[in-house]
Specification:
Structural class: mainly alpha
Shape: globular
Strand content: 5-15%
Helix content: 55-70%
Number of strands: 3
Strand order of the largest sheet: 1-3-2
Number of domains: 1
Length: 193
């Protein structure tokens, strides 16, 4: 990737991090764009059949090492950028608080964040759920995790759309989503029921 393309990608990730941290009122002392690594470097550390874009997390002697990588096909795709930035922000926020976070919770939050970004940009936030396709690299347990996150997030986001239908409802919507962000995983899995 050229230096100019790297700077553009870093700006996009930085803007998304800023947006997510402001919307959720997260106090984070990190710059997501500084955690970008090349997909080639990431793939050298990943097992076969890994996602083409994603977040690497390694915990070592009480230190959490993070990196986000974006395949060239995903670098201009807003859904991929939102999802991976969401994962990185969520991991960093949980780490700052000394809290563990599951892969399921990361996927669920990424789905909700895609809804939120779409909705606040004036688009149909639920469109993401209708245009969803399964990636071929997933094994059965990974696919089940993604399916659960997708199903729960879709249910929750539909309930948000019903309860907060208009632009004037945005402050209440954000208050609800801030509480959801901070909720324990078990509570998140029941959201929208």
């Amino acid at each position: 990737m050229s230096p100019a393309a790297e700077r553009r990608l870093a700006r996009r990730v930085g803007v998304l991090q800023g947006w997510l941290t402001r919307l959720y009122r997260l106090d984070l002392r990190f710059e997501a764009a500084r955690y970008l690594i090349s997909p080639e470097r990431a793939r050298a550390m990943l097992p076969d059949r890994s996602p083409r874009s994603g977040v690497l997390a390694l915990e070592e002697a009480g230190t959490l090492w993070l990196g986000v990588y974006l395949d060239p096909r995903d670098r201009t795709q807003l859904p991929a950028l939102v999802e991976e930035t969401s994962h990185l922000v969520c991991l960093a926020w949980h780490a700052e608080l000394g809290r563990r976070v599951s892969r399921l919770t990361l996927e669920l939050q990424g789905e909700v964040d895609q809804y939120l970004v779409g909705r606040l940009a004036g688009r149909d936030g639920l469109a993401h759920f209708r245009g969803f396709r399964w990636a071929r690299w997933m094994d059965a347990s990974t696919r089940e995790r993604y399916a659960t996150a997708h199903r729960v997030a879709h249910r929750y986001c539909r309930s948000l759309t019903r309860r907060f239908p208009g632009r004037s409802d945005t402050p209440a919507l954000l208050q609800e989503l801030r509480a959801f962000y901070r909720a324990p995983s078990e509570e998140k899995l029941r959201a929208g029921t």
